[in-house]
Every structure is written in structure tokens, then in C-alpha cells.
Design goal:
The protein is mainly α and 174 residues long. 46% of the residues lie in helices and 7% in strands. The radius of gyration is 17 Å and the shape is elongated.
Length: 174
């Protein structure tokens, strides 16, 4: 959801439809993927307090990025008491497949932890982060070594977090 598409969601009463489905027992949790500024997120969560979770772009590179505003969006979601599902924890693989001189800094700190695992730990250790961020991990996997590391990580996280039914509001054609 972003301000540019919000009118469409409201015109077609998407949020109301989701509430109906939840009341019918067909939907367990209501949430959306968010792609805008903290003020828009605050406005949305104030207007739709029944939302259970928000999917946010969260990783240590975007945390202080003035365009993404990951830290600020995270703080708004927490202020509203929402669960957070992480998208782009490894920034499309960019935080896993990096220049060797940068990767060496991570290996120097912990020889057994890959750069990808540092990125996953950053996202996974944030308060209010739900297990649903695991959905996006397979999109980032490019190499067999990373795949094995992530499977190990996923197994440990999956046991710690409830499974969320991720209903991401899709763009409305029109």
C-alpha cells in the first residue's frame, strides 16, 4: 500500500472486505505490504486499527536510508502495536553476495556466520517481527551455501514464531 494506490483500495472497500472475511473465520490476520513514508503509515494504522500486521522493507542498509525510512516506518508500526513482517531482509541478495573485503569484516567478527546470516539476524532480532518474513527469503537465495545457511536459520525461527496468513493487498486493476 502507498498513498498513490490507497484511493483504489478504499474505492473498492478492500479493508472492509478483509474485516468481513475475518469475521467469517476465513482470514486469520489482516495486513498489508507498505511502500511509503512514515506519516502515511501512521495515517493508515490510525484509520484502520484492526490491521494485525504490516510488511516493511527492513535491513541494516535501509535502516537509516532517507528514501526508504525503514527505522521510522518500523517505529510507527511498533507505536501502533502491530506485528511486522520483513521484506528484503537480505536486500535482494545484496547483503549476502558482497565484495570480499566487506565480507571479510563479517567473517572476522564471526568466522562461522555468513554476511547473509548477519542480515537475517538484524531483521529477526527486531521487536515485533513475526515469522512471516520468512516468505521472502527464497527470493534472495542465489548460491547453494546461502541456501543451506538459510534453511538452518529458518528451522530455528519457524519454531519460535507463529505462522501468519499473509494476505498482501494486491494492486487493483483499473
Amino acid at each position: 500500500v502507498r498513498r498513490k494506490t490507497l484511493d483504489k483500495y478504499e474505492q473498492f472497500k478492500c479493508f472492509e472486505w478483509l474485516v468481513e472475511k475475518k469475521e467469517q473465520g476465513l482470514v486469520k490476520n489482516i495486513g498489508f505490504s507498505f511502500h511509503d513514508t512514515p506519516d502515511v503509515l501512521d495515517e493508515l494504522l490510525t484509520k484502520y486499527p484492526f490491521v494485525d500486521f504490516v510488511q516493511l522493507q527492513l535491513n541494516y542498509i535501509d535502516w537509516d536510508d532517507p528514501e526508504v525510512q525503514a527505522a521510522e516506518n518500523y517505529d510507527i508500526a511498533r507505536k501502533h502495536g502491530k506485528q511486522i513482517i520483513v521484506m528484503e531482509p537480505v536486500k535482494g541478495g545484496g547483503l549476502a553476495d558482497m565484495d570480499e573485503d566487506i565480507a571479510d569484516i563479517f567473517y572476522a567478527a564471526d568466522p562461522d556466520a555468513s554476511p547473509a546470516s548477519w542480515a537475517m539476524r538484524f531483521a529477526g532480532n527486531l521487536e515485533n517481527v513475526a515469522g512471516g518474513f520468512l516468505k521472502n527469503i527464497s527470493d534472495d537465495i542465489a548460491r547453494r551455501q546461502l541456501y543451506r545457511q538459510r534453511i538452518f536459520f529458518l528451522k530455528s525461527i519457524f519454531l519460535l514464531h507463529p505462522t501468519f496468513l499473509l494476505l498482501t493487498l494486491c494492486s487493483v486493476v483499473g
